Amino acid sequence: MLHIGGARTALFNYLFAKHNNGKFLLRIEDTDRKRSTPEATAAILEGMEWLGLTPDAPPMMQFERAARHAEVAEEMVRRGTAFRCYATQEELQARRELGEEKRQAAKADGISEEEKASLQAEAHALLAPYRSPWRDGAPPPSPDAPFTVRLRAPDGGERVLQDGVQGTVRIQASELDDLILLRADGTPTYMLAVVVDDHDMGITHIIRGDDHLRNAFRQTPIYEAMGWDIPHMSHVPMIHGPDGAKLSKRHGALSTLAYRDMGYLPEAMRAYLLRIGWSHGDQEIFTDEEAVAAFDISGINRAPGRLDLDKLGQVNAHFLRLADEERLFQLLKPYWETEGSIGEAEPRLRKALPHLKDRGTTLPELAQSFAFLLAKRPLQMNKKARKAVSGEGLDRLRRLRDVLQQLPDWTAEHISVAISTYCTAQGLSMGQIGQPLRAALTGGLPAPDIAPVLEWLGRDEALGRIEDQLAPD
């Protein structure tokens, strides 16, 4: 799936590229063959398409370039910046386990400070980033021994990254291991593949999650080993839940497409995701054009952003009100048709749509606000509605029906005047006639002002609903 955190990162890349008249490129990193399925790829592409983040070239499939990645690794071996390592997985696992045993032993009671310090030093050496004994040209254990290809990590000193979001970040070279570039079966690792692909794709800027910050230090030596330009990197903080904890399912949906299915508009998701961890003055909501014009890496905050579903609802409601009515009608139609065709109700729905666009924060919520227009005759009346069309209420409704039948123009304006005139003539308040009239027209379903409701229903449907309540059982 396309996680909403990944979607925000993609949005940042997209806006940065468009702001600088560059190209927004997409790569499907599918070197992990167990996790990379056609269905997974399709879900990512569908999520990107729904969000409107269309790449400027067809997506690159990373695994298809495995031969090119291996070619670069062998070139590094020839240059002496990579080497063949004959350590087996079993040996490395045994090394880690021994290091963990030493670390636990150093915590035991009854040992001297000297023994404790010795065990801690041994544990540290065994658990430290792996530096292979073959990095300096030691011969293989046998002519046909299997091997991996490893990067010859920088030998010492400080490594510095000038990050677009995090600023100047420093680590010691001793913290880096001789990372594997080619596995024993000859397939490339992710670390090698991304660097080769970034170079071959002409990538100049990378914006990604700060969970990759350490990877930047592991990847830059590969660029250096090949004499390639290093892209400018910006590492963006994660999105957290409202409680400040790492985002998880308990905070809400994680998949971008889940928000589509919940009834959010893509432009609302773009506008909302943009403001999680990025700001530009006091402006809260941006159109696509405004976002492209304003976006810059300097506006990205170092602190994690927080998911706020109430705020997302407000942003979505804003864009629902702005939406083109034909598009909005087509988006709402599947919700209206859950129990069959909307049929003859379509003109009523279309007429009411411009006036009811502010009655929901999501598509299903908005669709529900039209329920009174879709109700089938005779209406199912709730308890309060049944009471309103009994006794005096029913008599008043009958006399009003006679007035409405005579109206030459069935518009909200004329209907409102007719009802007001009727109330004055009968000595009634608007509430005394409004309650039974609303009950007859809606069955107790929520609805706005009564005169527009009568207009949207149309003369025949509105009078028919009133007649249904006046007819003897």
UniProtKB/TrEMBL annotation:
Its EC number is 6.1.1.17. ATP binds at K249. GO terms for biological process: glutamyl-tRNA aminoacylation. It is found in: Cytoplasm. It catalyses: tRNA(Glu) + L-glutamate + ATP = L-glutamyl-tRNA(Glu) + AMP + diphosphate. Its main location: cytoplasm. A motif ('KMSKS' region) lies at residues 246-250. It is an enzyme of class 6 (ligase). InterPro entries: aa-tRNA-synth_I_cd-bd, aa-tRNA-synth_I_codon-bd_sub2, aa_tRNA-synth_I_cd-bd_sf, Glu-tRNA-ligase_bac/mito, Glu/Gln-tRNA-synth, Glu/Gln-tRNA-synth_Ib_cat-dom, GluQ/Sye, GluRS_core. The keyword Ligase applies. GO terms for molecular function: ATP binding; glutamate-tRNA ligase activity; tRNA binding; zinc ion binding. GO terms for cellular component: cytosol. Residues 97-106 have a biased composition (Basic and acidic residues). Gene3D superfamilies: 1.10.10.350, HUPs. Residues 327-469 form the Aminoacyl-tRNA synthetase class I anticodon-binding domain. Residues 2-312 form the Glutamyl/glutaminyl-tRNA synthetase class Ib catalytic domain. Catalyzes the attachment of glutamate to tRNA(Glu) in a two-step reaction: glutamate is first activated by ATP to form Glu-AMP and then transferred to the acceptor end of tRNA(Glu). HAMAP family: Glu_tRNA_synth_type1. Belongs to the class-I aminoacyl-tRNA synthetase family. Glutamate--tRNA ligase type 1 subfamily. This is Glutamate--tRNA ligase. The gene is gltX.
